[in-house]
Design brief:
The complex is a heterodimer of chains A (385) and B (778). Chain A has 17 helices and one strand. By secondary structure, chain A is mainly alpha-helical. Chain A folds into two domains: 11-103, Fumarate Reductase Iron-sulfur Protein, Chain B, domain 2 (Orthogonal Bundle); 107-381, no CATH class. Chain A is elongated, with a radius of gyration of 23 Å. Chain B is of the alpha/beta class and 778 residues long. Helix content of chain B is 28%, strand content 18%. Chain B has 19 helices and 30 strands. Chain B is elongated. The chains are: A mainly alpha (385), B alpha/beta (778). β1 of chain A pairs parallel with β19 (454-458) of chain B.
Chain lengths: 385, 778
């Protein structure tokens, strides 16, 4: 702290944060109303005042590797109360977007995720992969047998699905692993520099204990409920996240069941499953939650004119919404017996799933990981968050 | 004039209920003054009554016992008549209600020991009013023999040009003198100018050339370049001005007064007037005395001083910790403006591009003070020059370290706009050092908004040094006045040409000379133009008052002038020296030569004169003394326990209105006090105090404006001089075996009315403790 800090403002960083929705950041005159207004900012070294000056001075190294930008849940209480309309909430959101890109490799993919013009290419990747590999291997059948009704695996083999999805998941985990290693190192360094922790090193056990402690907080959305400006977002976000969790559980069970059934003497058992199966209930409930939650989020964002919503935000929400709608559509058209539409929707659904998984560390959804890690670190570091 | 008196007592506003009007009428009746009462004197019938008496009865000297003279003055103004307003309402019945000072009951009316304070007070004030009108007369205007209405503007910068245009627009002839070879001044030397119109957020191109062009449209404006003022002699409406080339020596160069150490002989004894004058002439060898007028001088009626500013020049080693003088790339804001006006911002050391520039607003170290003579303008200039860096280089960075960022009024919009430039970084902070770092510089600062000690790499460092008024170096106006060529006491304004910053803009301590622009305080071009307009109006007001023989300010319209009874003058020079406005010059014999048009009618000369030979027709040693003598002083012959009588000499400017507000708010104070209004405490002659004490009054206090560096005296020096005189009178009292604490002076501001009752009551209590004046009853 006592050391002299050599300041070298990064003009490109300021410009970029501005372009990402933080264009008002220079209006800040450091009154600290934001830090006072924020219900979840810690008592010691509270954000976002210090983040605002760091951003307006272009001090990239103080922001990208700063766990505090992740403690913010972007409720907008600070932006509403800011006397200069510098919108600290939007600035932190922009810095987070910048940080996600900064930790994700390859860089080209990170850039593509933030550029609407690159969207067709990103979508084309799974489409081409599915078509080419499916055609070569014969795992994609454009004239599936309809004698037993609509069976998705007959059109798009389970092998073909999991070959892609497992690969995408491994890729995602690898990207996150690399990013998180640097991220944790950076936030610890930053915490030491800013005097936010007394812990010299990050101990693995202690950190995991902290992680376990914060998970209920995250699931219960305790931090959301502290906000005043954007309270309606809490339930929408909760529906969405629990929709995802439910679908993740269902998918995992199905995954284990299908591949397990290959060991059965009678051979593998494919879907669709009975509507009376409790797993199916969970799947349907989760699907409805996901669609409902995302629609709600879309409505909220559209009605909130004072908060910035960019391509970065819309990409994720519409992808999640598309995921839910295409999944539900696939099921409904199967029941209705509209084979062509059903298979088409199924294909689209799988494209969405691939996008969701493979691009996760590059998209806004990465906040799932970074925020969780940051909150766990904060718990570990002993700040009263 | 043959006086025909008339006393009129108003019964309105509660006066009739609180006082025994019939008994009050006995006061004028005793002195055979005709008296009339009226239910409401300011009503139509009341005023008609007065008018009728003036017209039919020939009444020309009226004593109106009603409300304060500060209200309804237009209703009770009767031209050609002397009018005295006896303040029964605010000073008597409102501040001494019957609930506190009960009226006598039927039985008490015959009780000789009963003291009806309120009635006594009303009677005293009525007697004082009657005494005064017997001693005063109507003034006649002082007319100059020759009157000139031309305006001289000193300084051809943006302020001078604007003042000339504004005066010319209203039809006055103007001459501008400029010491440089061309008009324009400092405003011509800049790349860009601060915003001057809505929305006040962006820099504009300099506007001074447009103003110079506009000036050409006025044939009534004469421009004299490469010219300075050698001397200005005379008085407003009749100034004789000698011009000369800069640096030239002439016999009409202004003489300087003798330094104090030369005013005594070898034995330390004060020289007499004639010896002093001889010494003065020797000291100013080759120059004519101030009373010798240049026969070739040009005549002017009023002067606008718009001589402007020069950049502050740091003394050697003054900012050593900032590398100034040591490192070539540490420059002042003035120097960097010169670089910017010539092209891109580069480093003086090697001419390389200066892409990272640090602007330092405060020298730091011991306190958070800014550089001398800096202020809002230097804050704005730093923002302006930071913008230059960004204009010149798309990757340029400009840092501003400040202790105070002063962007007043709408310039806040400019600040906001600059703040949003992505390459401009502002922080409060104390710069601790500037040092060399290889090819460039490194600036270190602490207590910044970033929360720690920081370093910044810089190509160029700019110090926000201030704008020094040129009156710091030189009087500029070069007035041929006995008190000296410049303005007095300007050191309390850091040498800015000013007399009282808040209340009276443009006023200097010399009547007829009005200061405008950066000579008054540092100003932007926009502010200077506005200021020039104000000063031009003041100059016009001066001309249009002097031509009618009335005072300009602050006693606007006052027709009286000090009248000297020269036969009894002892040439003590006190009036020449004490006049706050240098209105009096003395000749080689030391006899005062009043310059009535320079006079502001404060009466300081009257207050200081030991021979009491200076008086005004409606305000004189005699008129006040007779008022004091009119105060009834009850003694033990009248009552077993006679009440005290204390005189309050009250400044008309702030203290008297504050007393009115006391009444208006129904605050009460001792009924043993009698007030006499004075033009200024400076006009209080100690003889009044002596008279009061001799008459048996128990104490005297002066109530006036604050003095000292933050003085509020309308006549600059009045309350300060009174303070000195009151302190001196203590010795005289002691010799009479009277406690010196019986005389005191208190300072009040106009808004401190709520403190006045306490001040008065405390003083009365202290006198009560001392006991009555032993001279009472003699």
């Amino acid at each position: 702290m006592a050391d002299t800090y050599l300041i070298e403002p990064d003009l490109d960083f300021i410009k970029e944060v501005g372009a990402l929705g933080g264009e008002d950041l220079k209006k800040c005159y450091q009154c600290a109303t934001c830090s006072v207004a924020c219900a979840i900012s810690p008592d010691t070294k509270p954000f976002p005042r210090k983040e605002m000056i760091a951003a307006s001075w272009g001090l990239k190294d103080r922001l990208v590797g700063n766990s505090d930008i992740w403690l913010c849940h972007n409720c907008g209480d600070c932006s509403t109360r800011c006397p200069r309309e510098a919108k600290p909430g939007d600035v932190l959101a922009a810095v987070r977007e910048y940080a996600i890109s900064a930790y994700a490799r390859p860089k080209a993919l990170a850039r593509a995720l933030r550029d609407p013009k690159k969207l067709p290419i990103l979508v084309a990747i799974p489409v081409v992969l599915f078509l080419v590999i499916g055609t070569i291997t014969g795992l994609l059948d454009f004239t599936p047998d309809l004698s037993e009704g609509i069976k998705h695996y007959k059109f798009f083999s389970t092998w073909l699905v999991d070959m892609h999805m497992v690969a995408a998941a491994i890729f995602m985990i690898a990207v996150f692993a690399m990013g998180l290693k640097r991220f944790l190192g950076d936030i610890h360094q930053n915490a030491l520099q800013e005097g936010k922790t007394d812990k010299e090193k990050i101990e693995v056990v202690g950190f995991f204990v902290a992680l376990l402690k914060v998970i209920p907080t995250i699931l219960k959305h305790n931090k959301f409920s502290d906000c005043t400006e954007n309270k309606e977002r809490e339930i929408a976000h909760m529906l969405t996240i629990f929709g995802f969790i439910g679908l993740f559980i269902v998918t995992s069970i199905v995954f284990v069941f299908i591949w397990g059934s290959y060991l059965l003497p009678s051979g593998p058992i494919h879907g669709p499953w009975s509507m009376w199966n409790p797993i199916k209930w969970l799947a349907n409930a989760s699907g409805i939650a996901l669609i409902g939650g995302t629609v709600w989020l879309i409505i909220n964002r559209r009605s909130k004119k004072d908060q910035k919503s960019g391509y970065w935000d819309w990409y994720l929400i519409y992808l999640a919404f598309g995921l839910g709608v295409s999944g539900m559509g696939t099921e409904l058209t199967r029941i209705a017996g509209w084979a062509f539409i059903c298979y088409l929707l199924y294909f689209i659904h799988l494209v969405f799933v691939f996008c969701m998984i493979a691009y996760l560390p590059f998209s806004k959804l990465a906040h799932l990981v970074y925020r969780t890690v940051a909150m766990a670190y904060n718990e570990y570091a002993g700040r009263n968050f | 004039m043959d006086k025909k008196y008339g006393v009129y007592i108003c019964e309105g506003c509660g006066i009739g209920e609180a006082l025994d009007i019939e008994k009050l009428c006995d006061v004028p009746k005793e002195d055979s003054f005709p008296v009339k009462t009226c239910p409401i004197l300011c009503s139509q019938e009341g005023v008609e009554l007065l008018k009728k008496d003036i017209a039919d009865e020939g009444v020309n000297t009226l004593v109106l016992a009603a409300c304060s003279r500060r209200v309804l003055y237009d209703v009770f103004r009767f031209d050609g008549c002397i009018v005295d307003r006896v303040n029964l309402r605010e000073q008597v019945i409102w501040s001494h209600p019957r609930s506190t000072y009960p009226a006598p009951t039927e039985e008490q009316k015959d009780d000789e020991e009963f003291i009806d304070h309120v009635q006594m007070m009303a009677e005293d004030y009525l007697k004082m009013g009657m005494a005064r009108v017997q001693r005063v007369d109507l003034p006649e205007p002082y007319k100059l023999e020759t009157f000139n209405r031309k305006i001289l503007v000193i300084g051809g910068g943006i302020t001078g040009i604007s003042a000339a245009i504004e005066a010319a627009k209203t039809g006055y002839e103007v001459t501008i003198v400029e010491k440089e070879s061309a008009l324009g001044g400092q405003a011509k030397k800049w790349r860009k100018q601060l915003p001057g119109a809505y929305p006040y957020d962006s820099l504009i191109l300099p506007t001074v050339e447009d103003k110079i062009e506009e000036l050409q449209n006025y044939s009534t404006i004469t421009v004299m370049t490469e010219t300075v003022v050698a001397r200005i002699a005379g008085e407003p409406g009749d100034f004789t001005v000698t011009f000369k080339k800069p640096g030239e020596k002439t016999e009409f160069d202004v003489p300087y007064p003798l330094p104090d150490e030369m005013k005594v002989d070898e034995n330390g004894k004060e020289l007499d007037a004639e010896a002093l004058h001889a010494k003065f002439m020797e000291y100013n060898k080759g120059k004519q005395d101030i009373l010798t007028f240049d026969p070739n001088g040009e005549k002017f009626g009023a002067v606008i001083l718009a001589a402007g500013w020069r950049p502050y020049e740091p003394k050697e080693g003054e900012f050593a910790h900032l590398g100034f003088g040591e490192i070539a790339d540490v420059v002042t804001n003035y120097q960097v403006e010169g670089i910017a006006a010539g092209g891109k911002i580069t480093r003086p050391s090697d001419g390389k591009e200066a892409k990272s520039v640090v602007f330092i607003q405060s020298p730091g170290q011991a306190d958070d003070k800014d550089f001398a003579y800096s202020g809002a303008v230097t804050s704005l200039v730093a923002l302006k020059q930071a913008k230059y860096v960004r204009e010149d280089y798309s990757d340029g960075k400009a840092y501003v370290f400040y202790q105070h960022m002063r962007t007043v009024g709408l310039t806040e919009n400019f600040y906001k706009n600059i703040q949003q430039d992505q390459g401009i970084f502002l922080t409060k902070g104390a710069v601790t050092s500037v040092s060399k770092n290889g090819d460039g510089l490194i600036v270190e600062a602490e207590h910044t908004l970033l929360g720690e000690k920081i370093q910044v790499k810089a190509d160029l460092v700019v110090l926000a040094t201030g704008m020094v008024p040129v009156t710091k170096d030189d009087p500029v106006v070069n007035l041929a006045y006995r008190q000296g060529p410049g303005f007095r006491d300007n050191e309390i304004f850091d040498e800015y040409a000013d007399s009282n910053f808040i209340c009276f803009p443009y006023e200097t301590q010399r009547t007829g000379i009005y200061a405008a622009g950066s000579i008054r305080r540092s100003m932007t071009v926009e502010e200077s133009i506005e200021d020039a307009t104000g000063a031009a109006l003041k100059a016009i007001q001066c001309l249009e008052s002097v031509n009618r023989g009335v005072s300009v300010h602050p006693r606007s319209g006052d027709m009286t002038i000090p009248d000297f009874f020269f036969q009894r003058c002892t040439q003590c020079k006190r009036c020449t020296e004490e006049c706050p406005f240098g209105a009096i010059d003395d000749d080689e014999k030391g006899t005062p030569k009043p310059n009535p048009a320079r006079c502001r009618r404060c009466g300081t000369c009257m207050g200081c004169c030991p021979e009491r030979i200076i008086n005004f027709v409606d305000y004189s040693i005699d008129s006040v003394a007779s008022m004091i003598k009119a105060i009834g002083v009850p003694s033990e012959d009248d009552y077993d326990e006679p009440p005290l009588r204390i005189l309050g000499l009250v400044c008309e400017n702030d203290a008297y209105p504050a007393l009115d507000i006391v009444g208006l708010n129904r605050l009460t104070y001792s009924a043993q006090v009698r007030f006499v209004p004075v033009r200024c405490l400076g006009s209080v002659n100690v003889v009044w105090i002596k008279d009061a004490m001799a008459k048996g009054l128990d104490g005297v206090f002066l109530l006036g404006c604050k003095h000292g560096d933050d003085y509020q005296c309308h006549f600059v020096k009045g309350s300060e001089l009174a303070d000195i005189r009151v302190k001196k009178i203590g010795d005289a009292l002691a010799s009479l075996a009277l406690e010196e604490e019986r005389v005191a002076q208190f300072q009040v501001a106009i808004d401190e009315y709520d403190k006045i009752p306490q001040i008065i009551d405390d003083f009365v209590a202290s006198i009560e403790e001392m006991g009555p004046n032993p001279f009472k009853g003699f």
